[in-house]
Design brief:
221 residues; five-stranded parallel sheet; 5 strands
Length: 221
């Protein structure tokens, strides 16, 4: 009887402690996730973490291996190992702009995206805790058109975003669309960084606000 009592006490303590378990968050991506044009502390993943923490959700951004210029292939090769090592409970993925800039075909982008998503959800304790974010429209920045090479940037990025949405829906995953918000950079100079290509800290903060409701909902389940 005494042993049974102690087992029940231990199980009860574990049950009550579990809601307060720190959520380990890893952000995967490229320049947009690492905060190019601002600082890593001003990146939207960092700001998102601050907002969630302020709301009482025990979360820590344990890794953000995102690198400016990287494609889906480099995320597979360089960031996934970091992701596995970090033992995350929650992840965000914003990737694809450099695939499009470098001329990666839609088919290859879809293949790499599928592989990434499959690997990520296999690692997460709850697969629904992968949140995908759409690719921003960089054509509205002063330096953006230099990367067009005769192509329609907004249309091209839009087609890659359609792939992201399609593949997420197949798995019941949530996508937050920041494409419309990114187009505000056209008319708001304060949203553009000094390099005239990337978002400013203010823009990243706005994206974090847009992503916050979806992240909150996933983490409260």
């Amino acid at each position: 009887m005494l042993l049974t009592y102690f087992l029940l006490v231990i199980m009860g303590n574990l049950y009550h402690a579990s809601p307060d378990k720190e959520i380990r968050y890893v952000a995967l991506g490229d320049s947009y996730s690492i905060g190019e044009g601002a600082t890593p502390e001003q990146s939207w993943p960092a700001v998102l973490t601050q907002h969630l923490s302020a709301e009482g959700i025990p979360i820590k951004l344990v890794a953000n291996p995102s690198v400016t210029g990287w494609t889906t292939q480099q995320v597979i090769e360089r960031e996934l190992p970091v992701f596995r090592e970090a033992r995350p409970d929650f992840a965000t993925l914003l990737i694809g702009v450099n695939d499009w800039v470098q001329g990666v075909s839609a088919a290859d982008f879809r293949h790499n995206l599928n592989y990434l998503v499959e690997q990520i959800v296999a690692i997460l304790p709850k697969q629904q805790r992968l949140l995908l974010v759409s690719i921003p429209d960089f054509s509205v920045t002063p330096e953006g058109p230099k990367y067009a090479r005769g192509r329609d940037i907004a249309k091209g990025i839009g087609s890659f975003n359609e792939i992201i949405i399609e593949e997420a829906r197949k798995r019941g995953l949530r996508v937050v669309d920041i494409f419309p918000a990114s187009q505000r950079l056209r008319d708001e100079p304060s949203l553009i960084a000094a390099d005239r290509l990337h978002p400013s800290a203010r823009a990243y903060a706005e994206w974090a606000e847009i992503i916050l409701p979806a992240a909150r909902k996933l983490l409260q389940k």
